[in-house]
Amino acid sequence: MTSKARELSLMKVNGIVLGFLKDGHPDMDSLKPILAAAPGTRITFHNALERSADPLAAIKTLMSFPQINILLVRGCGETLEERAECLGSYANVWQKDGRRVLVNGHHVDEAVKLRELCPFIREFHLGSQVRTPEAPLPPGALDSAKVVAAMKLLGN
Question: Which CATH homologous superfamily contains domain 2-125?
Answer without folding.
Answer: Copper homeostasis (CutC) domain (3.20.20.380)
